């Protein structure tokens, strides 16, 4: 019989260095979901013959049909699945051993993850890194992402209304594309998530995308830089902003020289660059101050907030920071290892508000929104999930969220939305609420 790996076992397999070249080629195959769990003897034979299974954490996660008896042993836990999956839902690890594809994995894991965990998982699958706890840096770099947002959306369309698909669609709006590390993902989320979710509400244009520059040390010949995070100036009102994360690998003399050259070349293009060190990332006061500087550079007016609103927004930023710190990419049990704070308050269930999330007409918690609508949401505090016991004053009044929702789904060129000099390619952007 064949076995079909899923959940964390599938994720560990996708991180296998031995399979890296095959995953870079995005090999896929069709999968017939087994109608029973393997016996202990069969499973031990698979483990002995397959390096990925020999290194995998136990119990293994296996997909079986919904009619199959459930099995929970020390060796394996089964998870129910439709018997028929869309074409390309798996790839072959070894003879008789299949693994769900990077496009299918988020859908099967979605029911057990928080929104933030799901976005973090998608960011790795769409990113240029693989988490590897056994390595010194805790990760290794990929040449290409395992998948793309377009491939994930196509797969979700093929799955139809299967459980988990709606949540994956929503999480895609806040997932990072081409992030170079887990910490870049955390930083990008803090910068780009809507303020009602604890972010700063900036428009993250791209991550690690090529920017055409004139090389300072090479007779001003054309070259390319790849900023960690590129923020878009809305409507061309300000300068572009690049944010570089320095996790401690920029300490050598050579690294400082490279940083200085990159900074000069980006400034010449009209892009201000800011470097965030690991220590600064953990300092909320510093990050708040940096966000204010970048807001001015981008030409974004400062929102007029009452003192109570300022206090509330800071609490949300602190909670987002804490929850991101608890998501390690290894433990996926719906609360970032079991100790994350309750979910942040949400009016739509998304990290970046999107008109697609409106679901039940006539419901005060799920309004029907159209592009450009001014949405006003008043939710009694008793209905808001995630009230932290340490913040009783927050739960004592009704919250009203007012935000301009906008969604754009159209091809655009980076050089048209930021400045000349950014390598052009089609992009898909969902705008955060207008400040």
Describe this structure in words.
The protein is α/β, with parallel strands linked by helices and 435 residues long. Among the domains are: 101 residues, no CATH class; 156 residues, no CATH class. Helices cover 30% and strands 16% of the residues. The chain has 14 helices and 15 strands. Strands 8-11-12-13 form a four-stranded mixed β-sheet, with helices on both faces. Strands 1-5-4 form a three-stranded mixed β-sheet. Helix 6 crosses helix 8 and helix 7 runs antiparallel to helix 8. This is DUF559 domain-containing protein.
How do the strands and helices of this protein lay out in sequence?
Elements: E1 3-5, H1 7-14, H2 20-24, H3 40-49, H4 51-55, E2 60-65, E3 76-81, E4 90-94, E5 97-100, H5 105-109, H6 115-125, E6 129-131, E7 139-141, H7 149-159, H8 165-172, H9 182-192, E8 204-206, E9 211-214, E10 222-225, E11 229-231, E12 240-246, H10 253-268, E13 271-277, H11 278-281, H12 284-297, H13 307-326, E14 374-379, E15 399-404, H14 414-417
Parallel strand pairs: 1-5, 2-3, 12-13
Antiparallel strand pairs: 4-5, 6-7, 8-11, 9-10, 11-12, 14-15
